[in-house]
Write a structure and sequence with these properties.
The structure holds 2 protein chains of 2 kinds. Chain A is an all-alpha fold. Chain A is 68% helix and 2% strand. Chain A starts with 11 loop residues before the first helix and ends in a 5-residue tail after the last helix.
């Protein structure tokens, strides 16, 4: 719960409690939005349902605009928030693994847990696989992945700084790109669903 | 696209445009001191360092003292305090001096002929959020008056005043006061202190 927790404004217990409540809300909304349905997630790759893309894109932009404006008007200190260092090579590798997991399994880590709780057997298998993966990676963390993990280090960067534009400009550009993408995918979706009869 | 989608994307665009406008219209860093906070800072009373206090610290060779002479180069060459760095007021914000003025290890003391220049410099640095800066109260004029040429108090004065006088007399001979005025004392160059990296606050994620 940044920035409250790292600054020591709330204790461990309250931090856990807030996390728990947000977690329940998150899970509830995932289920309510139909994200526990594998076809919804896989739809992005087949072109008949772009809800996932829209959700992620609009969530990122909403957060970016909100943080920027709140920081500007003194409601939040952006320096108190946290983001990790960037290592682009392992990030790229991880991105590919995640993408294949999306297409093959039809879940992302969060939705798989939600779906498993609603009783979907494929989701339970997915969660089991994820746990095996977690343990596998953890036990080989130092022996196998040392080089890959530290390759392509870029330090703590954000994209706007990296390409050399101001934060406000970058947010505007990203939002325009998103708006165009939303329009484009809605056209694609219409065409694909007219041609094939997909059932969600 | 559904109607809701269009409205939401429209809202996002408005927000992004807003962010863009305030970002390009206002290049001031957000962490700069706000006017209401500045009022509090300006009205605080511990912004001055007295000449006695300064003399005491100079005599004990206090390494945590960073004296900044805000007058012009010619005035500085004529006379300056021990170990003072000459940064004329118009150069106070230059990049080469920022490490000396903006720091929290040494105590930065500004002085000019009176408190006037120092107060301006102090105000500027406070506006930028710098810590640890002080104004030499009364400036060099007060310094000469009190430290270099102290006046003997009247016989009826209190003991405290006599003690202060004897301290000032000692200081006066230490700094070569009285007739020695005008002779520049040795100047050791001020260097910016080595910055130690502050421990960063505990991160939220895995790092």
């Amino acid at each position: 719960m940044g920035p409250l927790f790292p600054l020591g404004l709330i204790g461990d217990e309250l931090n856990m409690l807030i996390g728990f409540i947000i977690g329940i809300g998150f899970g509830f909304l995932l289920e309510a939005a139909g994200f526990t349905n594998t076809r919804k997630l896989a739809g992005v790759f087949y072109g008949y349902d772009f809800v996932v893309l829209k959700v992620f894109f609009s969530a990122a932009i909403t957060a970016a605009i909100g943080l920027f404006l709140m920081n500007h008007y003194g409601l939040i200190d952006i320096k108190a928030t946290f983001y990790p260092k960037t290592f682009w090579i392992p990030t790229l590798v991880g991105g590919f693994i995640m993408a294949f997991g999306f297409i093959i399994g039809g879940f992302c880590p969060g939705t798989s847990i939600c779906a498993a709780v609603t009783g979907k057997i494929d989701a339970m298998v997915f969660v089991l696989g994820a746990i095996i993966g977690i343990f596998g990676y953890a036990f080989t963390y130092e022996s196998i992945w040392e080089d890959l993990r530290n390759s392509g280090a870029m330090g703590r960067v954000n994209i706007a700084e990296w390409i050399g534009v101001s934060d406000g400009t970058f947010i505007l550009l990203l939002t325009i790109v998103a708006a165009i993408a939303f329009f484009a995918v809605s056209v694609i979706q219409k065409k694909v669903t007219e041609k094939n009869d997909y059932q969600l | 696209m559904k109607k809701f989608d269009v409205i939401y994307v429209g809202l996002l665009l408005v927000g992004a445009f807003w962010a863009f406008v305030i970002n390009s219209a206002n290049d001031e860093p957000i962490d700069r001191v706000q006017p209401c906070d500045l009022l509090d800072i300006v009205s605080q009373t511990d912004k001055y360092m007295t000449t006695d206090e300064l003399a005491r610290r100079l005599m004990s060779d206090d390494p945590t003292l960073a004296l900044i002479d805000l007058r012009s180069k010619t005035e500085y060459d004529k006379y300056s305090l021990t170990g003072a760095t000459n940064i004329p007021l118009e150069n106070v914000l230059d990049d080469e001096y920022v490490d000396i003025i903006n720091q929290d290890i040494q105590t930065v003391v500004f002085y000019g002929n009176s408190s006037d220049l120092a107060a301006k410099a102090w105000m500027l640095t406070k506006r930028l959020g710098y810590q640890n800066s002080y104004i030499l109260k009364g400036g060099l004029n007060r310094w000469v008056e009190t430290i270099l040429r102290p006046r003997e108090p009247q016989e009826t004065a209190s003991r405290v005043e006599f003690e202060r006088y004897s301290f000032r007399k000692a200081a006066s001979s230490y700094f070569g006061g009285g007739s020695a005025l005008g002779e520049s004392t040795t100047t050791k160059r001020l260097s910016a202190p080595i910055k130690r990296k502050k421990k960063s606050a505990a991160g939220g994620g895995c790092d």
